[in-house]
Amino acid sequence: MDKIGFELDFQQFFEYHKVINAKHLAKRINMNETLLSQYVNGKKSHQKAG
After folding, report:
1. What's the whole-number mean pLDDT along residues 14-30?
2. What is the Cα–Cα distance from 12 to 27, expressed in whole angstroms?
3. In 3D, which of 40, 35, 38 has the Cα closest to residue 18?
4. Can you tell me the distance from the alpha carbon of 17 to that of 12, in angstroms, rounded to the nearest whole number?
5. Which of 45, 42, 40, 44 has its CA nearest to residue 20?
6. How far apart are CA 22 and CA 10, in angstroms?
7. What gap in Å lies between CA 50 and CA 36, rounded to an integer?
């Protein structure tokens, strides 16, 4: 069976959903605030595992 996947562009997501505060979201999901900020600002991108 084939796997289905998707990628989320954090920059585009937060640009479209301006009401969402990245810092508060990071706290809510227990994610490093600096890392999420880097994703949002395009300074860092995710790496696929395996």
Report:
1. 89
2. 20
3. 40
4. 8
5. 40
6. 10
7. 22
